Structure formats: C-alpha cells, structure tokens
Amino acid sequence: MSATTRRRFIGSAAILSGAGMVRSAAGVPLAQPDERTDGLKTDDAQGKKAGWAIVGLGQLALEEILPAFAGCKRSKPVALVSGHRDKALEVAREYDIAENAIYDYQDFDRIAEDPRVEVVYIYSINAARYVLNEEPAEVTAYACKPEDDPRFREVPESVTFVMRYPSGAVASCLCSFGVSESRQYRVHCEKGFIDMDPAFSYRGLRLRTNRKDGEVAESADLVIKPVNQFTKEMDGFSAAVLDDSEVITPASMGIADMRILAAISESIQSGTAVGVLSWPEAGKD
Question: 139 and 163 in contact (C-beta within 8 Å)?
C-alpha cells in the first residue's frame, strides 16, 4: 500500500498561510502566546463532554481548533489523526490525550471502534450559499502549478474558479499560496455593494455596505462582535450529539461543498465548465 498523506486524505482543502507559527522546543507549531488559554488541558468539571478526534495537525488545527477546546463547555479532544507520530505525541501531551488514541491515515477506520470518540473533525470549505441562498449549477476552474517548485508537487500554487448559479449570479474566487494574503469578499448589487474585509479571518471581522439611490450614496460600517468560532462550533455539534438535537450546519452542507470541490478539480483537469449537479453522487445524501 502506498503511503497516505494528510493532503491526499483530506483532498482538495487548502489553508492559506498567515502569520508565522510559534514552535515549542521540539519544533511542533502551537498557538500564538497571546492566543493561548492558561492550562491547555480540558476537564469534565462542567459535566458531560463529547469526545472529539481531530484529523490532521496542520496550522488550523494547532493554532485555532485545539486551543479553542479550552473554552468549550461540552467538547474535549480525545484522539488525533496524523501522518507524523512524533508530532502527534507532543500535541497529545499538551492536551492530555492518551497515546493509544493517536491514529494515522492507514488505521483511521479504527476510530469507529474507539468508545472515547463521538465526533470526528475534518475541516474543509464552505461555499457562498449564505450570500446567495442557492448552490452553483456550473463551475469553471484553472490552476497554476510551477513545475520547478518542490512545494507544489501535490497541490497547485493558485486556483481560480467561477461558479454560476441558477438565478444568474456569478461568484469569482481565487485561492493562492503565491500572492499577498487577502480575506475579502464583495457582493455587487443593483444599487450598491456589500463588502466584508476581513471576511475569512477568525478575529476582527468588519462588514460595510454602500447604497446609492440617485445622486445620494449611503454607507454603513458594522463591527462584528468577537466570538471564538471554533468553541461555538464544537459545542454546537457536541450538544447535537449529547442531546440528540438538530445540527445548525448539517452534513448535507459538507456534501455540497465536496461536490463543488470535485467539480473544480474536474474542470482543472478537463479545461471545460463542469455541471455541479451532473456528478453521479449528486442525488445521494
């Protein structure tokens, strides 16, 4: 069997690099000092907590997801999945995770037999559905992959794609490791625009609207109240597991995301537009 890496396992998901990572003495990147919570280990003092397995120990997991457990009331990390055992062992010690709860991508399916694990966290993308309230019907994508750069043997340097929606709306998107970081989105409307910058950061989100009626233009700024998105997200999922309640973001959203990613990948390979709903698994949830 060929070696399975985190990149191959997770698929097309990509995380843009941000600020430099802080490393522990052994070289494992952890949360920035001003973002850590005293006492990284979590306990059960607040009652029953759902056990989480974190798949992949990349920058997002180490700097955002795992530190967020310190603020969770109903969630705790109990297992890790990584292709680098030494790295996983150090992270496990930081979060009081048992050594026998460390898995790699070859034995990942054994998590199903681990009674400590009730939720598996595999991070991926979300689409523009919250803005348009619909799913794309067609995707056209292009990728740039420098042949002489070893960093991009497995992933492209840049991907640009256009999603066309049944209503006629068009979303133009870019994801790149090779350009200056931008976390903005803008919605162009008939009489103005909605601008969010930053839109995809975990802190400091700002929303601005601009509306022009005749010769009169009005603008408004909204500073969004800070909240640890990962803490709220994980406790929301844990509540659904522990209380048998509804999930705000159901699995169907993730399935829809993967269909879009699959269509983007196919469009890059074929050089043509790909219909999202035409995929064989489109009707199988």
Answer: yes
